[in-house]
Design brief:
- The chain has 10 helices and 11 strands.
- It is an alpha+beta fold.
- It has a 4-stranded antiparallel sheet. Strands 2-7-4-5 form a 4-stranded antiparallel sheet. The protein has a 3-stranded antiparallel sheet with strand order 9-11-10.
- A hairpin with a 5-residue loop joins β4 and β5.
- α5 packs across α6, α7 packs antiparallel against α10 and α8 packs across α9.
- The longest helix has 27 residues.
- The protein is elongated and about 60 Å long.
Length: 224
């Protein structure tokens, strides 16, 4: 239960669905929700686990990924502030186990909603159902993009596109070859070999735990 009025107002500002909901739904929401803090590196859900609750991320970042028997990983999507996990919502509605792994990449503040309540609100609140279906639409697009890249693009093209995406964080980012491999579903050795080729072409410069994009236009052309 969330009774603090300042806290309630902060959450209303962070989640448009609450601003658009009726006062009755907001009251019900704050009665049902629990605000928790989860440390960095914590596994929130494992593959095959029961979805007994739905988490709405207030702050922080969660990575949702698949893990193969070989130990290789591939990122399906990330959950940021104001978001929730569509796979958890889907599992709640279909009463099926969680099909992936969800782990915190930073410290996370989250709202926890019991699965029974999250399911009931689907038929009782238009803003809530619109929020959930909006998640489904967005994440379906994300996952299709992952499948498209895996199926139709060479690994060097995928790494180039990945580097272009993270370039929005700045020319130099703190990232390891292992982290890139885990995100893209390949091995560290493959990533290292391709990045070495990029360095020889003057596209990037690597240091331990850091990567600097030295020629973004060249990398964009290379991706094409």
């Amino acid at each position: 239960m969330i009774e603090n009025l300042q806290q309630q107002q902060r959450l209303i500002q962070g989640f448009p669905l609450l601003a658009n909901a009726t006062p009755e739904f907001r009251n019900d929401f704050f009665r049902s929700a629990t605000l928790i803090h989860i440390p960095e590196g914590h596994t929130i859900a494992s593959e095959g686990s029961e979805c007994g609750q739905l988490a709405l991320v207030v702050s922080g970042k969660v990575r949702v990924y698949k893990l193969a028997d070989s130990g290789r990983e591939i990122t399906l999507y990330r959950i940021n502030s104001g978001d929730s996990c569509v796979l958890t919502a889907s599992c709640i509605m279909s009463n099926t186990p969680f099909p992936a792994i969800a782990a915190t990449e930073t410290e996370v503040e989250a709202l926890i909603i019991p699965s029974r309540q999250a399911s009931e609100w689907m038929s009782e609140s238009k803003p809530w159902s619109a929020f959930i279906f909006g998640l489904i639409s967005k994440r379906l697009t994300d996952v299709i993009a992952v499948l498209e890249h895996v199926a139709f693009h060479r690994m060097d093209e995928r790494i180039a596109a990945y580097l272009i995406a993270i370039a929005s964080q700045g020319a130099t980012v703190s990232i390891t070859h292992h982290e890139i491999a885990s995100d893209l579903g390949t091995t560290r050795e493959v990533v290292s070999r391709i990045l070495k080729g990029f360095e020889e072409k003057g596209l990037v410069a690597g240091a331990r735990g850091k990567l600097t994009i030295t020629d973004l236009p060249g990398l964009q052309t290379y991706r094409q």
